[in-house]
TrEMBL record:
This is L-tryptophan decarboxylase PsiD-like domain-containing protein. Residues 48-178 form the L-tryptophan decarboxylase PsiD-like domain. It comes from the Eukaryota. InterPro entries: PsiD-like (IPR022237).
Length: 250
């Protein structure tokens, strides 16, 4: 059985965690990290899917307008240099995200959300951001982003996050955090192909790790034949219940 008191652990209690993550991604724009000056987003190679998205923004007047205005509409201190400043910065960050696997976020933040959420959240909550990200052309292109990212996450290259180093899922800190949360060791809780964290416990990719299976008896389903009960499909709980929800409700 799983340990109690793990409800809501997917919610990040400290927004600064997302800010720190954004700063770490922006380091790619630092031409000279030691002196802390921002480099040029023109100097970074963008993958084909990101180049195509940038071309969409720059070729569509309406989308171009929204992708300019939403940065002006984000509320933040005028002297805050550690944030995404314009759509070209955004392209660089998206270019980074789709070649990365989510890392261990610390004891209080097991997962730093969905990385693309961390990138887009400040802008989605602006009037222009809402218009931009509900645009069918933009949505269609984000599907392409997710397709590219998915191919990476199912590849062996994504296993770099399944290592024993800092911020990796099989570090001593991460394994201890997961053991406390689950009430048993990682190996005793999940089906692994070997017992060696140095060999990724046998997981073939980050996706293979993320969709891992419980060992028998670790997650019994209560009254599986009862249609009045809803069984959570993941480490989650009900956040809210609303009737008559529409597709574009926020």
């Amino acid at each position: 059985m799983l340990a109690p008191n793990h409800i809501g652990r997917g919610v990040i209690p400290q927004p600064s965690v997302l800010d720190d993550w954004i700063i770490s991604q922006l380091n790619v724009l630092h031409a000279e990290p030691d002196c802390g000056t921002r480099g040029s987003n023109q100097d970074v190679y963008l993958g084909p899917v990101v180049q195509e998205f940038q071309q969409l923004i720059e070729s569509d007047p309406e989308i171009f307008m929204y992708f300019h205005k939403m940065f002006d509409e984000v509320r933040r201190p005028a002297d805050d240099v550690n944030q995404i400043k314009d759509y070209k910065d955004l392209m660089v960050i998206l270019n980074q995200v789709i070649t990365q696997a989510p890392r261990f976020g610390g004891v209080n933040n097991l997962v730093i959300g969905v990385p693309i959420y961390a990138v887009l959240a400040p802008f989605c909550n602006t009037p222009s951001g809402y218009n931009a990200f509900t645009n069918p052309k933009v949505n269609a292109h984000f599907q392409k982003f997710f397709d590219v990212w998915a191919r990476f996450l199912v590849s062996p290259a994504s296993r770099y996050a399944l290592a024993t180093g800092e911020k990796c899922w099989f570090s001593a800190e991460a394994l201890d955090a997961m053991a406390q949360r689950l009430g048993a060791s990682f190996y005793d809780t999940w089906v692994c192909r070997n017992d060696d964290p140095e060999k990724h416990y046998g997981f073939t990719s980050w996706d293979d790790f993320f969709t891992r299976r419980f060992r028998p008896g670790m997650r019994p389903v209560i009254e599986p034949g009862n249609p009045n009960l809803v069984t959570a499909a993941c480490e989650a709980t009900v956040h809210a219940i609303h009737p008559n929800v529409r597709a574009l409700d926020t």
